[in-house]
């Protein structure tokens, strides 16, 4: 538990703790300005713990009474090196946790040994938590001040509702702006990435102001380029912002930077365009107030030689000179920069400032664009995936946040597929949902026509900006393609987008190449293959929403089909098992986990190896859609590894499974009609022989509710958006009684597969889930004829033509890769 141990200051409404020893009360009681519960109210558990640790001769105590508290906030920051540290450590992020016992709130410091609870999203806002050990870390430079630390906790279930009306016991924790409990850093970071501005240090109140130019000397960018090296003082610059980059946080424990941020502005006047770098404390002051298109008057800046390896974005006008020999630096000091936003009504034509020139393209034009082409798009969102994270560097704690979205613009049956990374606009990134009008600028085209299926999608760049509905007043509204889209929106009567909009779910894009050799050429890692014995550690090291692809060699020995109706039940049961096994306390032992694994192994080995149930896939559930819908992909992808010396020939394998089978059936409602049925399980003879001799069986086939894409319901947009966003840093009370995610209809008509892969040494097996997407009009399905290929391309394409036997078939005992 962490609070600030301060000197109590008695006042009319804030009294010190009522302890018998006033001297001890003055010097050692955790507090600052202390509130005391009224005589008639119930006693604060937080207050009792603070008194107990004050009375203890040790630096830690076990509370005499452990009661549940509610978690209201989990906030992250960078802890700088202590003076005693001689060797700089890699970035170490710390967490302050705000708890409430129903009487008081208290901000607490989480011991770094428990950081993994935050990494796994086990310790999160809105849950019930029991604290079983606390310690105290004193500030030796100040009298009676220190920090209470949470040393041991048990994380419980999510609470239905938590009151935010309880006051802080220490009024210092209510001060604005919020400050971390430890270290010299002045602010908190976003909980899950470093690109998003977070907290109350980020101002938004900078407004345009008219300026008297009579006594202002202005220099052009081209003239400055020629003379800056011979100048000591620089005249003012009058420029327009053409591009604005996302934030870059460069804080390190060994650097004493208070607000180590950096952002780039590409600005231009009539003579050229140049990069402007805004540093450190200027970023929280100005970043959220500056936007593309504003006119700025810059005074008291500095100039330096440009960084040679940075690529500037293309100028909006090819006629404007790109100045790459110098950079303009804006800083709070050395010298203190003066920035003025000039109102547009004061901008004079004779200044000849460049106008914004957007590069909007339509979806029908995308197929003809070259790779790495930079463009802008506008459309309506028809799919919004959940927020995912990928590690920037394997040995670091920093992550990128991103999500996949689909944008339709009415010019093609196909949507734009966009990989949307955080653009330092969390107010938009965390509030996008289907059926919203959406603009994204400075996107880069990624394509590979040699890959099967062809790869074609857009990804954000460092200068990408996003905009939601309410485009009035934006600089792009006069673009002809924007006007055409708005006209299409107003005149369309087709409600297909409304009926087919989808939100959330796991989205494994882009698909892997169709052969292992192409896959190996496309992956830039030290070790291409992961031993199946190392998979457990790879999975355990994954953090919240982290996406990572690994490749293993193995033999497909079991394929089981799980219909959608039972998929949800399976997910709930599996999640219950996961919750029972997860390390919710800091002292869970590996022996318990190994015991549980043995129990699970026995449970799976006792399954009936030959299921006899069938799942009817009716014509209605398999009917083609009018729009392409990429709904879901696998948690496991399988890539054939060519090994002709050892792989048996397909014709010599009588036990090759046919998962999709045609069977004649009759029912009371439909007589004499052929129906497709799907056998729910296939098992290899090799599995029957080897499964009882395994030394380990890893079970990772659980499909959790948030991994399933849901049909979007506009009336429930707030709840659905929250479910597929990242976990917030502060508790947000629900509006009324929220529904359950499992109650929302899945966007997939089919269920999923559980695939068991046996290691090449026949000692370890792993269960993985394959979540296919079903889209008969998806071009990627045109060459699919086996279940193995299905898994490779993330889709299922059962043929409907009678007599056509190109149905997905699983290749038994094929050498494969698990990705």
TrEMBL record:
Listed Polar residues bias regions: 577-588
Domain of life: Eukaryota
Signal peptide interval: none
Record InterPro entries: NA-bd_OB-fold (IPR012340), RADX (IPR040893)
A Pfam family reported for this protein in Swiss-Prot or TrEMBL: RADX
Biased composition (Basic and acidic residues): 589-605
Disordered as annotated region, ranges: 1-31, 569-626, 638-675
Protein name, per record: RPA1 related single stranded DNA binding protein, X-linked
Species per Swiss-Prot/TrEMBL record: Felis catus (Cat)
This protein's encoding gene: RADX
